[in-house]
Write a structure and sequence with these properties.
single chain; 170 residues; alpha/beta; 18% strand
Length: 170
């Protein structure tokens, strides 16, 4: 399974960032991922969608993605170019939704102390390693279960399922 090394700039947020802050409720009727991406994080960082680059990483505190169960929040971040979210902890439904859309969500206690806004992060998900390229500091995290790695490598739960159903012997 091929999950490339992620290398991007850090965008930092605090505790209890809810799904309404990630993608405000008035945009829930949108179905175009590019349009969702244009509104990512606008409630807390109005310039985010215009400045985030493919491969960038969101770093946050506790309970990231709390609030409603809208999958739109994870989609908005993914299609804005965010490659992963590293947080002290995640709301359970956001965590699941992130993987469902192919966005890595990595619980990593103390992450805001190691990664500051604008710093460069390298993230090797299969190896369980996050490295601050600017300072050399590293944080390790438990490897993700194989099926979660396969879902990420496939690009989300739907492509993973399609690929699984196409395997010989099915």
């Amino acid at each position: 399974m091929d999950i490339p090394l992620i290398r991007g700039r850090v965008w930092q947020f605090g505790d209890d960032v809810d799904t309404g802050q990630i993608i405000p409720g008035q945009y829930i009727p949108l179905t175009d991922p590019a349009e969702l991406a244009r509104h990512a994080m606008e409630a807390v960082a109005p310039d985010f969608a215009g400045l985030v680059k493919p491969g960038d990483v969101v770093v946050a505190g506790k309970n990231f993605g709390c609030g409603s169960s809208r999958e739109h929040a994870a989609k908005a971040l993914k299609y804005a170019g965010v490659a992963a979210v590293l947080a002290d902890s995640f709301a359970r439904i956001f965590f699941r939704n992130a993987f469902n859309v192919g966005l890595a969500a990595i619980p990593l206690t103390g992450v805001r102390q190691v990664f500051r806004p604008g710093q460069l992060v390298e993230l090797d998900i299969p190896a369980g390693l996050a490295r601050n390229v600017d300072t050399g500091q590293e944080l390790r995290f438990p490897p993700l279960p194989g099926v979660m790695l396969e879902i990420l490598a496939a690009g989300g739960i739907i492509p993973f399922t399609v690929k699984s159903l196409e395997k010989p012997g099915r």
